[in-house]
Amino acid sequence: MPEQGTDTRIRVTVPPEVARAATAKAISDPKAPGPVLVLEDVEVGAGEGVTFSVLAPSTDPDVPPVVLAVSGLAGRSQETPAQPLSKMRMIVPLNSRANEVLAGKSVVTLTLRLKNPRRSPLRVGSASLSIAADKP
Amino acid sequence: MKTSRRAFTTTLTLGSLTLVFDPGIAFGQDDCTLPTPGTATRFIPAEPRIVPRISAADLGQPARAVQLKAYRDAFGKIRALPASDTIGWTKQIAQHCIQCDPTNTKNIHYDWQFVGWHRAYLYFLERILRSRVGGGGDELRLVYWDWENAASRTLPAIFAPANQPLYYDNRGDLSGPNWPLTDDDVDVQGLLAIQQFSQFGGTATQKKPVPAVFSGPHANVHNNFDPGDMADLQYSPRDPVFYAHHANIDRLWSSWVAAGHRNPDFGSAKVYFYDETRTWRYVLLNDLRDERKLGYQYSTLMQPATPVRSLTTVRLGRRNADFVLPSETRLPLRSQPSAAAFLLITNIQNLESFPETAREFGIFMKAVAAGVAANAESGYLGKASRVFSRQHAHAGPLSASLNVTGKGAAMAEAEDGTIKLYIAPLTAAGVTSAAGVPLTAEGVSLIR
């Protein structure tokens, strides 16, 4: 997937229970939502609004990345995050496409792509996946 | 005259809440102060009648022309009140602004107050609107912007015309690339599936986490108005469409509860507002959990995706390098060959003999030669793909989830349930580029 200036790449371990649930949902109901992505210590400016897409690479380099979520924080967009900066834990529910992406995986690389092309990439402390949806 | 909203302020601490108040000086719409209140008295919602909150699209139907006029008139009366009036438009905006001032360490957006505070904010506005309408105003309820519906992905029509009280002139570029909203912008399914309120609506601790319902569609809709005021965390309530957007967030909370999830016990946590009599009141978050006590329910709710069917996972045993189907799974595999089944293979470990550039691998139930089309092989189960980053494979092991529906009978064929699995690299055309080797993995499970 071609990297853009607003991208943050995160490598996330897929816990076995998440992989199993994703597999089960991929089989039984293609519309069932995926797990949640938990982003720790997302750094944003005071009152800053950000919108970002969570992207997974397609296995075919000629196919666009898969959008797993569009999320963010409400507020004015800022090119340079205003002081004081703050760090937040964000809960990002992933959509049904995530089940196919995560089924059977032990690790996955995701991209957080900011909508604002002039903002520096998001700084994220760590990321994890957990089951949020009804268990199969 | 524009005066800094920082001027002439004092602070007041109410329990865990610190607010900034002014001594009653009237500012314009950038006013972010409230008059210093007296002692707050408790407000317990107990509305005698439950009236539906309908969508903005419904209110725009010709048959509701009289109702729409009354709605607009009520907003017009609030907007015409003096800026210093605690039930006027300016102070309505200030009630929100003051809560998310950068100096406020209890920002109502970043903890479990988020859904309850905004429910109360809309409820008190609704009461104020009703109080200004007079006879017949008891029916008035706010409308919601049902942006989750594909037909409602732009500004609702009732807010668009100029020279009427629902109009606002700073909405960014409504014909720009942010519009219409996309399916991904307003996907509520993931939120409806969250089981714990602590993730859905946050905890008592700021930003740990930010409520999931604050992110996602809530934030995306606000931000799509950028550089309009709807994208301003403090001043978005200047735009009348704010209240329709937040009614839909409130509807999302109602839908989450209707989907079978539980609200927590908020204990003594409370929120503060001026009511329609200009009296400073507090409401316990616990008293805001049931919207019917506030005199409304939504004409429709958001529906969660179909519940996932019950499935069973069986881990295959090991016999030397082979995998063994437990005996209790073999008969069902033979008798119900068309039942959905997946084979989950975790941490495939023997890929060293294949080129580092190999991206896809076929997995087979029998030995396979180089140069054959995987799909044409009777023992072909499916493929696993490596994830590349900057054209390099991750160092982590490969796992696979194979849809083996319809192949169960063949898997159960062996009397002792032994399955020999092989793996071979595939070209982009799905042809084996090398002969397969016996597959080694940490574990294999069958999901049915």
Walk me through this protein's architecture.
- The complex is a heterodimer of chains A (136) and B (448).
- By secondary structure, chain A is mainly β.
- Chain A has a domain at 7-74 and 92-116.
- Chain A is built from two helices and seven strands.
- Chain A has helices at residues 16-28, 97-102; strands at residues 7-13, 36-44, 50-56, 66-73, 86-93, 107-114, 126-130.
- The longest helix of chain A has 13 residues, at 16-28.
- The model of chain A has no long low-confidence stretch (mean pLDDT 89).
- Chain B is elongated.
- Chain B folds into two domains: 10-298, Di-copper center containing domain from catechol oxidase (di-copper center containing domain from catechol oxidase); 313-447, no CATH class.
- Chain B starts with 9 loop residues before the first strand and ends with a strand.
- In chain B, a hairpin with a 2-residue loop joins strand 10 (317-319) and strand 11.
- In chain B, the strands form seven sheets. Chain B has a four-stranded antiparallel sheet with strand order 9-21-12-17, with no helix packed on it.
- Helix content of chain B is 22%, strand content 19%.
- Chain B is an alpha+beta fold and 448 residues long.
Radius of gyration of chain A: 15 Å
- Structural class of the secondary elements of chain B? alpha+beta
Distance between the termini of chain A: 32 Å
Q: Averaging pLDDT over every residue of chain A, what do you get? A: 89
Order of helices and strands of chain A: EHEEEEHEE
- Largest sheet of chain A at a glance? 4 strands, antiparallel
